[in-house]
Every structure is written in C-alpha cells, then in structure tokens.
Structure to design on (299 residues):
C-alpha cells in the first residue's frame, strides 16, 4: 500500500461525511450455517459465484480508476521501477465511482458481512480495488488488514470479489485460524514488504512470521477463482499472494465492514485510510454518519 512519493498521498477530496445511502434497495443473502462455521473457525470462507451479477459493473468502475488514476483517491503503484507488469490498487472511491456506489447501495455485501460477523448491525468502512497486469511477478506480502486501520474489534469482514479467473498460485492465500492467534503484525508496504510507520513502532505488534519458507507449518487456503467468486475474511486473518507470474489480468474488488464490538483505535503513526477530523476518541464507537449502517439483523 505505497503511493507515488508518499504513503497515503492525497489526490482528490475523497470523503464526504454524512453521505446518505438508501438501504431499501439492498439485496439479501441467505448464508449457510456450515459456511458461517467455517468463517468462525478459519477466519476465511469461499462462496462460489456469490457475486457473479456484479462482475461487469465492478470491472467498469475499476477501469475508470485505471484510466484516470490521479482523478481518484489514493492511486497505488506497487511494482518497483523496471519490474515486469503492473500492480495497482486504490481505495475510498465509493463516493466517486458510480459503479462502486451502486454495488454498495444494492448488492448483498452488507447482508453477507452482517451474517458472517454474527453482529446485530453491519457498518460500511470502505472499498478497495486491485489490478495485477499480465507479466507481474510482485507478491502481495503476508499481512493482516486490521493493523492498517483505525479500528479494533473482533467482528470484522472483508467481502472480496474475484473479477477475473485466477489460478491458485496467483490468487489470494490465507493462513487458516490466524485470526484466533491473539497477535497483531506490523502492517507492510506492498512494494517491498517492509513495515511502514517504522519511525513509530507499535509495541503491541510483532513482525509477520516467515510463512513462505515454513509453509508446511501452516494451514494455508488457496483456491482457483472464477469471476464472481467471493471470499469473506476477518481483518485479522493473515493473507497474501505468491510471486508466480500473472498470465492474464487479475482484478478484484473488496468491501470492508465492521460490527457491534468495533471501536475507534488510535494507532501510532498513520493509518490507511487516513481518516482525520472525525472527532472520535480511542475506544469510542465508530460514527454512523461517517460509516453508514447498511444492515441490521431482523430477528
């Protein structure tokens, strides 16, 4: 997650607090009990084809971002100069890209997140889109999402949608059960795997273990993916990709959610996204006018 020149480089006015979403058009999802149990146990679950109807629209939204990256929020280029391919990601554009807003306002993502988090309500945090071009060999380093964020809690979920076919060797991999280790690992820069905020180390975190050289010691989940396949995972679950050469474009879209027990967390150094001037104090509930509640349990 490194921007051109500086981490979280500001590109556009990307956040409108109090932005309203009409929840009457949101779709629902009927989660299976066995899938919810898998998520609780492993910190990750695969839902085949759960978002197929949104693939074309989300591809179109991501293309807007790719065509004019500086017109949208936080364009990230994580391939070092001279390396083949391209590794692009960008986030916090749901208020700027109409296809993203349509997805957040009408898809079953909120319903999926709420059920798998086992929460009374689901709040939307932000979205994150990714693209690896053919020829890319740059791995996504093993990391957890939670240490990047200004939140803390156990009821969290990323709803990740594959927008292209991907072999298991280039798709996301997860360490099953790592969300239950009771550990937080330093967030890492995607470009080279180094820890960011090195000047403000967090004593509550530790270095990510060297998983790749000791893979047999870990229970690693990796699946070949088709467009519309959806992975739900906990913010604390370790995940990343290998450095196998990407043979065809690999795009993905992830929405991030949190539930009842999540509170604002004041972390040393900068967080991603860099929410500022929100007025929250450490340990307070996340503001619903900044992070809209889009799903409530009906029973």
């Amino acid at each position: 997650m490194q921007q051109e020149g500086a981490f979280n480089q500001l590109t556009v006015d990307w956040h409108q607090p109090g932005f309203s979403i009409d929840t009457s058009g949101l779709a629902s999802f009927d989660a299976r009990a066995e899938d919810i149990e898998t998520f609780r146990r492993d910190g990750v679950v695969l839902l085949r084809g759960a978002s197929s109807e949104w693939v074309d629209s989300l591809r179109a939204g991501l293309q807007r971002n790719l065509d004019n990256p500086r017109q949208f929020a936080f364009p990230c280029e994580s391939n070092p100069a001279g390396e083949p391919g391209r590794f692009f990601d960008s986030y916090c554009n749901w208020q700027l890209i109409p296809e993203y807003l349509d997805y957040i306002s009408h898809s079953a993502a909120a319903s999926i997140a709420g059920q798998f988090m086992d929460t009374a309500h689901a709040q939307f945090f932000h979205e994150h889109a990714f693209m690896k071009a053919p020829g890319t060999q740059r791995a996504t380093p093993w990391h957890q999402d939670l240490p990047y964020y200004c939140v803390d809690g156990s009821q969290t979920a990323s709803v990740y949608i594959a927008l292209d076919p991907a072999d298991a060797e280039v798709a996301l991999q997860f360490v099953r059960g790592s969300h239950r280790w009771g550990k937080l690992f330093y967030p890492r820069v995607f470009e080279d795997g180094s820890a960011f905020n090195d000047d403000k180390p967090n004593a509550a975190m530790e270095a990510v273990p060297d998983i790749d050289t000791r893979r047999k010691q870990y229970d690693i989940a990796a699946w070949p993916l088709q467009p519309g396949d959806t992975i739900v995972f906990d913010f604390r679950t370790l995940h990343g990709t290998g450095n196998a050469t990407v043979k065809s474009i690999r795009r993905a879209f992830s929405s991030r959610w949190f539930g009842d027990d999540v509170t604002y967390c004041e972390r040393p150094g900068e967080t991603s996204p860099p929410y500022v001037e929100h007025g929250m104090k450490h340990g307070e509930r996340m503001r619903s006018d900044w992070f809209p509640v889009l799903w409530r349990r009906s029973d």
Summary: The chain is about 15% helix and 20% strand. The first strand starts at residue 44 and ends at 47. Residues 1-6 have pLDDT under 50 and may be disordered.
